[in-house]
Request: fold
Amino acid sequence: MGFDRHPRRTLAAGATLLAVAAFGGGASYQGAATAVSLAAVASGWGALLAIALIWRALAALPAAAAPAPELPPGAPGDQAQLAARALALETRLEFAPVAMFAIGDMRSTASFEPVNANARRLLAPGRATRTDQLQRTLAGLATGQRSVIAFDTELGSERALAIVSDMTVDGLPQRLVALLPLENELEAEAMQAWQKLVHVLTHEIMNSLTPVASLSHTARDLLAGAGAGLPADIAADLDIALDAISRRADSLTHFASGYRALASVPEARPQRVAITPLFARLSALMAPAWQVRGGRALFTVEPESLELIADPGQLEQALVNLIQNAAEACAGPATPEVRVSARLVRGGRLRVEVCDNGPGVPDQLAADIFTPFFSTKSKGSGIGLSMVRQLVHRNGGTVRYAKSVGSGARFIVTF
Reply:
């Protein structure tokens, strides 16, 4: 974005970009489980950023109806001051907390240009896996509308709020697109909603099941004491019925108690955790079961001195759940295998991957596997992966399911 010849146009373009970002602040997203308000996520910084930068930018411009006058040759000081303001605005745009793109020709992907650092990082290797598809999606958005779009990255599917605005720069029409990341905020809001729902459901279920179980046990005891005065067939039928009620009540009580754990995950107690000793403990705990089945569990850490600030118990439990989930998914292969790796990636982030050689997750179910009560197994409870997500989020991380290059499932935990 040059400013040497037309600093006022640079300021106008930058102001429009920031206005696009600010308009995204009041959006809302209606999820499957809850209405997730995004105002708390975006409106604060969006409004402040827009007011501060747009006001300062427009203060240097003439009235909108009047054309920008040419600076007289004898006013180098004004020209230098205006150029400095343009440079300051361009610097702020570069580090704006949204990804901004400029699209000149809707028919050509060559005119799709990242405007700031966040946009370039999104298109760089290691982020969006299908940049051509993302470009087509953004080019097809309607002007003036807010849309929640999804795109694939190496960390799995992510969602973002897209806001589109039209403008003219140097007499040429351009379309500006701002992408506000939403994935982490949506996950956090959805988990809070599920926790509240699970808490209410389990409370009501337990309140109803407890007296049912108690009364069924009491009725069986009374029947045993008074059974001599009843016909044998009637006494037998009553005993069978009461026994069935008692067993189902006990089973549902156990079922509800398991789900209650989703609403009562304790707060994390972070401390320094060395990854190599942690993986050694996991190997000693989980690898023998894979070896008995003729398979193997492999653990790698790069570098071996890798450390993380997290709750060691919760981190270990999350990884145990993922490895156990892989073991259940690999019931078919003759030589089941799970690979657990930890390494540093861009931005100083720590990435832990759990990959298996099972059948993987069907594409149509991938979006639901972290939802409480949802399971792809015939006898699954739908707790394991939901618990993993809660434990990881308690420690400031994210967990996603990503498409594997080959066969099998691939879960990525990032801190």
Remarks:
- Residues 1-13, 15-68 have pLDDT under 50 and may be disordered.
- The radius of gyration is 29 Å.
- The longest strand covers residues 156-169.
- Residues 183-226 form the longest helix (44 residues).
